[in-house]
Input
Amino acid sequence: MTDHDPLARSLRRARLAVCGDFALDARWDLGAGAGERSVETGLAVRRVAAQRYEPGGAARVARHLSALRVQRAVLVGALGRDPF
Output
């Protein structure tokens, strides 16, 4: 979007609220090879090969609104215990 775009101009005047998941999302990539079998289930155990951590969905929306230079964004979320 350019500064001459009507949508871009209206976004810069926008005041928005973002409500949702600001928690950290954990993404685990599983390894291809099957290791030993689980004692509890008898299924093949798959090990985590790589881990990635990213902001939650609402945090990504807020980041994009910032990049679009909206006038104001109020962030609304719940507080609580989270393992990450």
